């Protein structure tokens, strides 16, 4: 009887479901590079794709008993696992980059001073005082949205969930609030 590659993978998954570590190593040796290639195509980052590959094999370790050959081929099942993990990682990285970009926007908006001279200290206190005054002129929703986004580092999506409002509403609050804040700081 001729055993197909899919049969071999199915047998390895069955052994992994029984917590056979040698089977996990064999599976990794057989398909790890191909799965990592899937992650690499999406993420375009070796470290991130390696992280996702490790997370996926941990998921295979815990969920191998859920695999059903009648629903999909073994390679299809594992590819879908890594694909979903990769997309989650990509979303998380995108959110983190947005937070960094928002932080830089705030530093520019508030004229962040990096010098450590006495004059720089006076300028920073003056800016902080102006900022405090201008924040006080905003309505509560705009002020809270700005503080959550730029002081506490919440993403727009996180703010929307926290205040139970649509994402577009939160974006509008931030946009209006920043425009009013910038206008106040210019005077």
Structure write-up:
The structure is a single chain. The protein is mostly helical and 187 residues long. It has 2 domains: 5-95, Orthogonal Bundle (Rna Polymerase Sigma Factor, Chain: A); 110-186, Orthogonal Bundle (Arc Repressor Mutant, subunit A), CATH 1.10.10. Helix content is 80%, strand content 0%. The chain has 8 helices and no strands. The protein has helices spanning 5-17, 21-43, 46-63, 74-109, 118-137, 140-151, 156-163, 167-186. Helix 1 (5-17) crosses helix 2 (21-43) and helix 3 crosses helix 4 (74-109). The protein is elongated. The model has no long low-confidence stretch (mean pLDDT 85).
The count of β-strands is 0
Q: Give the CATH superfamily of the largest domain.
A: RNA polymerase sigma factor, region 2, helix turn helix motif
Domain tally: 2
- Proportion of β residues? under 5%
Work out the helix count.
8
CATH topology of the largest domain: Rna Polymerase Sigma Factor, Chain: A
Which structural class best describes the helix and strand composition? Answer: mainly alpha
Brief write-up:
The protein is mainly α.
Index terms:
187 residues; mainly alpha; Rna Polymerase Sigma Factor, Chain: A; Arc Repressor Mutant, subunit A; 2 domains; 8 helices; 0% strand
Topology:
Elements: H1 5-17, H2 21-43, H3 46-63, H4 74-109, H5 118-137, H6 140-151, H7 156-163, H8 167-186
Helix pairs in contact: 1-2, 2-3, 2-4, 3-4, 5-8, 6-8, 7-8
